Amino acid sequence: MSAPLLEVEGLRVRLPSRSGAMLPAVDGVDLAVHPGEVLGVAGESGSGKTMTALATLGLLPHGARTEGSIRLAGREILGLPDKQLRSVRGREVAMVAQDPRTALHPMLSVERQLTEHLRHHHGVGKKAAREEAAELLDQVRIPDPRAALARYPHEFSGGMRQRIAIASALAARPSLLIADEPTTALDVTVQAGILRLLDRLRRERGLAVLIITHDLGVLSSIADRLVVMYAGRVVETGSTADVLGSPRHPYTRGLLDALPEGGTTTMRPIPGSPPALGAVPAGCAFHPRCAHAREGCAGEVPPLLQIAPGRATACPVDPFVRPDVPVEVRA
Ligand SMILES: Nc1ncnc2c1ncn2[C@@H]1O[C@H](COP(=O)(O)OP(=O)(O)OP(=O)(O)O)[C@@H](O)[C@H]1O
Ligand SMILES: [Mg+2]
């Protein structure tokens, strides 16, 4: 496989609490995205998905502290000065933010927002940039794209603004797209269209995509590999087929059991809720909610153990395979 485009290693993000204490929102995350690959990040609310994405772009909330390494095409970008980071964001990485209010500038026309990167970072002329922008709007299913270019964000519905934000991120011709819940607000047909567009761009242009969503259905249709996060840590990773088809961590199993199955009502939500920042349980953070927890689970934080090439789980109990035998670690 080609070298990763994005490589995150040992990423820690601490956020200041009201009392001034620094609380860990991301606690030692490793992940990699290769050119042309779609990596999905799953996990309940508060698991640190957005903070991981924002750290990658240097857009964390004020006062946040980071540790670890984030390399883009082999170059360390964690801790780069703002000016250099802005240039990375303009040229190489684009983001579709979870909060749609921040995605578009309210005072700039759609045309300006979709053509600025093309004109200034890629040297595309005004007319050609407008053509490319109209084409993108058409691909995200904005009716009458040419007329839409002359309009302003407030003239569109929320769902349309989200689609324009996706077009605007892609208009920068990034090599990496970070999309945080990009299709959550959209109806299923539009959502399917956007997923097809991303799939085509990764095949045709080698676009790498880091997609964050609660929606395991979206991930199963588009992601090559998955990272499952809980309380700021990766608890399971592997190919999408392996992770969703034969989950090895009780948390991943819990997320799948909580899904409605083919319209029936067999869904079993995970009991309890994820811990608040600063109240992460000792040992395996999931143990208070885990039906398979044993005494040792409250001790050390379980490491992410490789159980097969490209496949790892942070549950040494591994109740789904052999209930009494710890996972065998393969190098
Ligand atoms: N600006 C902030 N200041 C302090 N804490 C924050 C801030 N933003 C998020 N947090 C906390 O950081 C932790 C991780 O949040 P994050 O937004 O990364 O979660 P998430 O996995 O993206 O969740 P969701 O699925 O709800 O988007 C949570 O406990 C959250 O409450
Ligand atoms: Mg989030």
Structural class estimated from helices and strands: alpha/beta
Roughly how many Å is the radius of gyration?
A: 21 Å
Number of domains: 2
Kindly report the name of the CATH homologous superfamily of the largest domain: P-loop containing nucleotide triphosphate hydrolases
Label the overall shape. Answer: globular
Tell me the series of helices and strands, N- to C-terminal: EEEHEEHEHHHHEHEHEEHHEE
Hetero groups in this structure are: adenosine-5'-triphosphate, magnesium ion
Total beta strands: 12
What is the first-to-last residue Cα distance? 19 Å
User: What is the CATH topology of the largest domain?
Assistant: Rossmann fold
Which segments are poorly predicted (pLDDT under 50) over 5 or more consecutive residues?
none
Total count of helical runs of at least 4 residues: 10
**How would you sum up the major sheet?**
8 strands, mixed
User: Would you tell me the overall average pLDDT?
Assistant: 91
Q: Which bin fits the share of residues in helices?
A: 25-40%
